[in-house]
């Protein structure tokens, strides 16, 4: 221990990265010392700004996850976290997104001046989302605020190319300067570590999660109910799902619902041409209450996607004990084990999809076994309270400049 009055010497490299960057950005040693002392206080409140596309009222997957997190934080109400969820894109025309981005940066500045910005949580996806988040991340660094990236994009592996282009280098720079990177599964951890080796030690796996359903599961009754939830289009495998359902026309006692926005009218018209008009419902986009009702009345959740990160609809189906049929894309294999917690089919394999759905329609015991196992996984690993606890732990670590550990 240093004697009274003795100065404690340290080198710049000995400081946590958060405080090194603050010093390089022009903050005084006294300000950094105060921040470090504050970080040692166990009960200190952490102030978080969360950048989410359209805020907690948005309809997209990221917004829904963040809205659920916001509700859970309010439910817990321990007072040690103050999180504000702010729009970074807006729900209107993409041409207006720059104004939301600038508005978020201005709010960061005001919060920083008010001492209410300990960490910035940046949800990021492909294309425009990444371009906007580069600006927000840069502003956070200039203001000396630690930031974490939360990667959601289903097609980020093709968007972030493995080359030395200007854009690839800028994305790598954003990831390697993040204090933490939250990914949804092992495949995304390995992907980010390969693209940005300097970030490997700061990657944390926190899978998506959902609340325990408030509606009791009743199923479809005499008719087995097959449910699809998501954007209606090619990436989610809806054309292949229609082909599979067409192949099941001779099978009795099933009906299907394809719920979501997108190419609804085109798919509806194709279903009529296939003679399925009386067996498939197309409600279009549905809100949270309607989603809950559909899941409660379903027996099978089908999502034959070609690309996903970690789909919320699969987790919602697992939460209610539905038998899941999906594809091994993104981090799906982290939560669905073939023939144990669901059935996996190759993307685009209509014959395998038809076989899997037919098997589940015909075999009540198989549906029950897979659904029960899926529900157990949800309660153990994918329930919202554990998700919120993991995110709060990451916020504390980023705000306090603690060294990261790859999950």
List the uncertain runs: 1-10, 37-41
Topology, number of strands: 12
What is the helical fraction, as a range of percent?
Answer: 40-55%
Class per helix and strand makeup: alpha/beta
Can you tell me the overall shape? globular
Query: Radius of gyration from the CA trace?
Result: 23 Å
Distance between the termini: 35 Å
With helices defined by DSSP (H or I, 4 residues minimum), what is the helix count? 15
What do you see in this structure?
Residues 1-10 and 37-41 have low confidence and may be disordered. This protein has 15 helices and 12 strands. The strands form 2 sheets. The chain has a 6-stranded parallel sheet with strand order 2-1-3-4-5-6, sandwiched between helices. With 407 residues, it is of the alpha/beta class.
Task: Sum this structure up briefly.
The protein has 407 residues and is an alpha/beta fold. 43% of the residues lie in helices and 14% in strands.
Summary tags:
single chain; 407 residues; alpha/beta; six-stranded parallel β-sheet; disordered N terminus
Summarize the SSE layout with pairings.
Elements: H1 17-24, H2 29-39, E1 46-52, H3 61-76, E2 81-87, H4 97-113, E3 119-124, H5 128-142, E4 147-151, H6 156-159, H7 166-176, E5 180-183, H8 186-195, E6 203-205, E7 224-229, H9 238-247, E8 254-259, H10 264-273, E9 280-284, H11 288-296, E10 300-303, H12 312-319, E11 323-326, E12 343-344, H13 350-362, H14 364-381, H15 384-399
Helix pairs in contact: 3-15, 4-5, 9-13, 12-14
């Amino acid at each position: 221990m240093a004697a009274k009055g003795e100065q404690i010497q340290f080198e710049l490299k000995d400081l946590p990265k958060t405080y090194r960057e603050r010093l390089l950005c022009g903050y005084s040693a006294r300000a950094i010392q105060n921040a470090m002392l504050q970080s040692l206080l166990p009960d200190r409140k952490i102030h978080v700004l969360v950048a989410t596309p359209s805020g907690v009222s948005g309809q997209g997957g990221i917004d829904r996850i963040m809205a659920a997190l916001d509700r859970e934080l309010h439910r817990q109400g321990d007072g040690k976290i103050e999180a504000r969820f702010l729009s970074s894109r807006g729900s209107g025309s993409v041409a207006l997104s720059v104004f939301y981005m600038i508005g978020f940066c201005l709010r960061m500045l005001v919060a920083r001046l008010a001492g209410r910005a300990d960490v910035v949580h940046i949800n990021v996806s492909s294309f425009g989302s990444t371009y906007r988040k580069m600006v927000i991340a840069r502003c956070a660094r200039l203001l000396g605020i630690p930031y974490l990236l939360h990667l959601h994009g289903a097609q980020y592996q093709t968007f972030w190319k493995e080359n030395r282009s200007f854009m690839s280098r800028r994305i790598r720079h954003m990831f390697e300067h993040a204090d933490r990177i939250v990914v949804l599964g092992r495949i995304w951890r390995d992907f980010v570590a390969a693209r940005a080796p300097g970030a490997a030690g700061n990657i944390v796996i926190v899978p998506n999660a959902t609340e325990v359903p408030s509606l009791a599961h009743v199923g479809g009754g005499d008719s087995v109910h097959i449910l699809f939830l998501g954007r209606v289009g090619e990436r989610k495998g809806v054309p292949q799902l229609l082909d599979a359902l067409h192949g099941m026309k001779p099978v009795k006692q099933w009906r299907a619902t394809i719920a979501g926005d997108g190419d609804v009218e085109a798919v509806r018209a194709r279903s009529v041409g296939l003679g399925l008009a009386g067996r498939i419902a197309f409600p279009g986009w549905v809100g949270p209450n309607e989603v809950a009702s559909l899941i409660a009345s379903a027996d099978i959740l089908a999502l034959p996607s070609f690309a996903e990160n970690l789909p919320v609809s699969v987790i919602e189906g697992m939460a209610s004990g539905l038998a899941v049929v999906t594809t091994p894309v993104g981090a799906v294999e982290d939560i669905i084990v073939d023939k144990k917690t669901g059935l996996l089919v190759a993307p685009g394999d209509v014959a395998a999809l038809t076989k899997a759905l037919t098997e589940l329609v015909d075999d009540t015991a198989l549906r029950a076994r897979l659904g029960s196992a899926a529900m157990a996984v949800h309660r153990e690993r994918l329930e919202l309270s554990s998700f919120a606890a993991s995110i709060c732990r990451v916020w504390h670590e980023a705000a306090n400049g603690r060294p990261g550990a790859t999950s």
